Each structure stands twice: as structure tokens, then as C-alpha cells.
Structure prediction request, 484 residues.
Amino acid sequence: MRLTYIFTSLMLVLRCIALVMLAPVFVAIYYNDWKSIIPFVTASLICFVLSFIFNKKSDSFESLNDIKKSEALCVVTLSWVFFGIAGMIPYLFYGLSPINSLFESVSGITTTGATILTTFDYPKTMFFWRSFSQWMGGMGIIVLFIAILPQFAVAGRQMFFAEAPGPTEDKITPRIRHTASAVWTIYLVITLVEIILLKLAGMPLFDACCNSFSTLAGGGFSPHPMSIMGYHSTTICWIMIFFMFIAGLNFALLYKVYKNKSLLVLFKDDEFKTYTFIIAIFSIAIALVLYFNDYSHNFIKSITDSVFQVVTTILTAGFASVDFALWSLPAKLLLFCLFFCGACAGSTGGGMKVVRWLFLFKYLKREIAKILHPNAVYPIKINKATLPPEVIQQILAFILFYILIFAISALIIAILENSTIIGVTGSITTLGNIGPGFGPVGPMSNFDVIHPVSKLICIFNMLIGRLELIPILAMLHPDFWNIK
Prediction:
């Protein structure tokens, strides 16, 4: 691993982060919130200073064309770490402790939506930053920088797939920079459409912007202390259900729909069909439980709350149209199952991803068949394409490490908090970038109640979950640190 390549990449990334940190300044000026200018200008200046320090040890931009996969993995990981640290600086000015500031920042950029805020008595500029940081993190900061920086023209491919590794590497245009631009264009357009519809549905414009940022990012931060439940609008709930469903789709698939001008493209995709099937089955099951057990036969509310919470959970958004911690046990258990699911690969959602569960089902089906026919060859196919052995091994390794990290973090947090509910749900909701869990860390509660060490574990879970384990795990190998 060549440090000059790392410094060159980080120098570019830090300068872009510095510019991103200035966005809330315009919001502060608009609302005459002059005190909120200093926090973001300070964070931006710190990023600029660091970029100049790295520039002294960097190489030429042309050298990035020769960047290796290990170096790309390192750049992506460090970029998210620096973004999290830069994002925490403004929270310090608003009176949050360092550990709480880091927690809130990382929860934002990883689109987790778990919060430590015990009060919402803060300026609008801060709430804009919470949601805007989620929007930036939703599609990926590296993907954005690849789209706008010509210096990442070749090296971008390594970083593009290092930021969001998955079972397949979908490239929707011949050049990776054009792919990044296309993805961000779709992302921006859909966000603007949702803002308009939420405003027309009666939501204040500022709230519509913040909630739209968090919706498309699969984040869950809302400027309202009671999340979406606080708006008391079934129309708003269904608008957000639609856009959360869209955000959970593979954006490469959405691009194909746009290019082919046909929705039939969706129904030819195995992951989309599985994703839709899971949402439908769980929505119906939870709605029936709510209808007969919780809502005194209120059919509309049962359907609305069921579909909303199913979609927001599978997207790992973390919004709440109701305090689902008060649901009956069967409804909570069904929702808990979705904590381990996740949305489609190539979406803004976190978690295991539907395509990996689809693979696991086909893999187990093949192993059962081989018990009876040990000499038969059963290829595993997704979208009529046979998965190569190396991809199969990578998916199995991912699932194994995912479960292992969840189990270890759940055990430690449960011991620290003396609570199995906090340990289990707090661990899986941060690792899966879901947000609220059950009990003291439920949808109408916060993570401020947990031990500082538990918060650090959750921060680690959020980062490793957003990067889908691979970059972090690669760093555990001794060869990764062969520095030149």
C-alpha cells in the first residue's frame, strides 16, 4: 500500500467534504441564524487545513490511475471516518458531548437514523445538517466525488465498488464516472419530486426538504420529535411509503427502467420480485395482527402503519408512523425479522440486502438436492446468470461475518446495559443501519441512555454496516498493511 496514493486521494476527498460542510451556512443565512454559521465554517476550515497537510505528502493526480484495490479500500474507509469526524464538529457547538456528537454524526452519514437527542430545541440549521448529511451518505460520498472529480476518472472504478461492495458489480454506463453521475442525477430528481409532493400534502417546506433527504437516503432523521407520526397525515405516510419503496430499489435497475421506458424491466429482476414479495407478505401479516389485536378493528390505520413500518424497516430508514414498541408481541416479532433483511443491492438501504437472502435460499435448496443427487451439478443463478465460485464464497463469508459481528456486539452491549433487548435490537439496528430498536432505544426514545462504550460499539457497527464489512475486514489481514 503506497501512502502517497492514499494522501493524494484523501486530499481530494477532504476538500470536497469541506465544501459540503458549507451547505448549511446558506440555510443559516436564510433563517437569520447567524450563530450557526460558525460551527460549519469551522468544520470546513479544519477539512481544508487537513487537505493541505495531506497535499504536502501526496503524489500527482495521474498516479491515481494506478491505484490498487487495497489502496481504494483504505481510501474509502478513511474517507467515511474523516466525514464522520468532520460532521461531529458542528454538534459540539450545539452543546453535545464529543461521544454524542460523533454518534449523531456517524448515524447521519451512514443513514442509520439512531439518535442521542433528548430534546429538539435546536436551530433549523442543525436539523438541516442532520438530514443533509444522511442524503450525502445515502448514495455515497465517494460516488459523488467520482461524479464531479475528473481526477478519479480511472481510480474511480476501484473506489466505486469499494464503497458499496455487493454480490454483483452493476455498471450502468461504459464509464464509471458517467455511472456515478447517472446515479446521482436519478437520486436528485426523485428527491425534488418528493419534496414537492410532501409540500402539496401539507408538510412545511423545511420539513419536506429534511424528510425527503432522509427518505431517499434510507436515513430516518426527521425535524419533528415524533418522526412522521407527528404530522398526523395518512397522505404524507403513503407518499413516503412510495418513495421509501423506490429508494430500496437498485438504482442501476431504475436507470434501466428510464432507458427502456418500460416498467416491465422491474419484473424481470429476481431481486425486485423477492423484495416486493417480502414487503407484501410482512405487510399483510402485521396488518392482520394489528387489526385484530392492537387497533380495535381500525382497518385503514392497520394497513397504513403496517405497510409504513415494513417498508421503512426493510429500507433501513428508521422513520416511525407509530410507536411500534407498543405493538403486541406477534407484530413486534414480525417486524424484528425484517431487521435482518435490508433492501436491494445498489440501493440506499443498509442491512444484509435481499439479493444475499435470495442467494442463501437458492444455496440451501441446492445443498438439499445434492443430498439425494451428490454427483449432479446445480448452478446457482440470479437473473439467469450463474454466480461464479468466488462470488458464492464472498457472499457466504459476508453472511458469516455479519452474524458474528452482530452476536459479539449484542453480547457486549447486553452485558454493559444489563438488558437483552438493548443488546440485541441496538446491535442489529446499528449494524443494519436501521435506527430505532425496541425498549429504551425504541422509536420514541433515543440512544443517549446507553453506556459510552456501547455507543462506541454502535458507532463501529454503523460504519462497518454502511461499508458492508468488506473494507473493514480487509484491514484485518496483515498483508493490507504492507506500507511502501
